[in-house]
Amino acid sequence: MKYGLNLSFAVKRWLEPEILAAMCKDDFNVDVVQFTWDLIDPWWPEKYRDPMVLKYKEAFEKNNVKIESSFGGLASYSFAHFLAPDENQRLAALEFFKRAVDMTRLMGVDVIGSPIGGMSNFESNDPKLRQLRYDEALKLLLDLAEYAHAKGIKKFLIEPTPLLTEFPHSPKVSNKLVDDLNETSPIPFELIVDWGHAIMEPILKEEADMEKWLIDCKGNVGGVHLQQTDGIYDRHWDFTKEGIITRELVEEVANNSNTSDLVQFLEFVYAFEETDEVVYEGVKKSLAYLRGE
Prior knowledge:
The protein is α/β, with parallel strands linked by helices. The chain has a single domain (2-291), classed as Alpha-Beta Barrel (TIM Barrel), CATH 3.20.20. The chain has twelve helices and eight strands. The chain has an eight-stranded parallel beta barrel, surrounded by five helices. α1 runs parallel beside α2 (46-62) and α4 (87-106) packs parallel to α6 (127-151). The radius of gyration is 18 Å and the shape is globular. 43% of the residues are buried.
């Protein structure tokens, strides 16, 4: 099993690239990470944003830690993006993601990803509007793919989310979305499946099964987010918390679905009020537990 870190744990805490890169390599013994847009907002003006991007690039290269991909964070996830009811917001989302592409390439990274957005309550409960929103999201994502391809992006990872107001939310819808996009996209769209999303029983019922997700979506899965959770909400706990995911289950599911080659990126989201010491120890102990140390 290969474990990496989404840098979500560092938000509002370890903001110097040199310190963070050394921590990942020396303290956590991690050599692959996923950059989060919660550390640098793609919207920031280039004259301020780009020097910061280059500092992360240089620091992680210096410490021999690969930034495998850049990914939308908690701040970005708050917005409706490509599924918004207002066309202005959907077009703003396209501009936002293009800027994220630019930031990603400047960092020397060629894989980008994110959830794609969320519908309003009104539109999500109208079958015709749901279909319209899906169709328009396809067009915008394909426009984005053309731009990303021209800039050197090799792959776009879409994260299914456990909400009926969002696309995609189930294995069937996830496969359809990726297949529809890949009919004409110049770059491949793939899924990054989050354990906490895939086993949320209140939404998914009998489909709340990570092994089912990985088998049903085989061929479309390009990554995994790993967290501790309770199957009721999307917790993003570390593994010092009591939940329903165990090291044995992670390994069993990976073996049974033939996905042991995929990096499992630990994506922990802590309360802002939590102490840095607790967060640091939580990440370190979680990695030790998963590695069987």
